[in-house]
Amino acid sequence: MGERALREILDDAAGGVFPPSDGSVTVVRPASPRETGVMSFSAHAVVFTDEDPAWVRATLAAVPSDPLAAPLCPPFLTALAERTGRVVNNIDLVTVADRLPGDPPVPLEPIEDREHPRVARALRYRDDVRVFAADGAVLVLGRGVAGRWECAIEVEPPARGRGLGRALALSARHLVPEGGWIWSQQAPGNATSVRAFQAAGFRPVGAEALLVVGRP
């Protein structure tokens, strides 16, 4: 199972069709050498890595926890990080929304400077990166895991509390190419971000931990 399999899993989940809730683990090769991680759905996990699936399953079996939780538990993520020479990023809530027609609800100015801190960081994790500035905020679009369109927002402290985060998340749905889905990850503890994306129509589909080279 390769890139097409991982992309099919994600496309199906975006459309509301999830892997079977049978407690099993699917191991697939990543779509890009840059990508290694775990995505957990309801009672089903997907591990995308170049490592031997037999090693993945044996390591999961040795985790002293509920088998349903093992793929995102620290012992397995630490073992996978050591095995691959990577660093575990945050465990995020993963959300998705479909495209909306028309123009974004807030004015956006493209940032062309590839040295801009937000642009430089996005280029570490995504392809086809596009970054837009709003009044006191930044919206990032790009192709992430298995080529899916992903977005992230950052609102400066003076601009918070006015609904700008929700408006930017909604704007992302207008910017994704026609027929596509737009994905976003939020740290579960960042309740403000979680609420903003859900208010903009993003639906929770699972949880995800990405393993990256160097510091996240």
Q: Key terms for this structure?
A:
single chain; 216 residues; alpha+beta; Aminopeptidase; 2 domains; 10-stranded mixed sheet; 6 helices; 10 strands; globular
Task: Note the run of SSEs as H and E.
Answer: HEEEHHEEHEEEHEHE
- Number of DSSP-assigned strands: 10
CATH architecture of the largest domain: 3-Layer(aba) Sandwich
DSSP helix fraction: 25-40%
Rg on CA atoms, Å: 17 Å
**β-sheet strand percentage:** 25-35%
The overall number of domains is 2
Q: How would you classify the helix and strand content by structural class?
A: alpha+beta
The CATH class label of the largest domain is Alpha Beta
What's the shape? globular
Describe this structure in words.
With 216 residues, this protein is of the alpha+beta class. It has two domains: 3-94, no CATH class; 95-202, Aminopeptidase (3-Layer(aba) Sandwich), CATH 3.40.630. It has six helices and ten strands. The protein has helices spanning 3-14, 53-61, 74-84, 117-125, 164-175, 191-199; strands at residues 24-28, 37-41, 44-48, 87-98, 109-110, 127-134, 137-143, 149-155, 181-186, 203-212. α5 crosses α6 (191-199). The chain is globular.
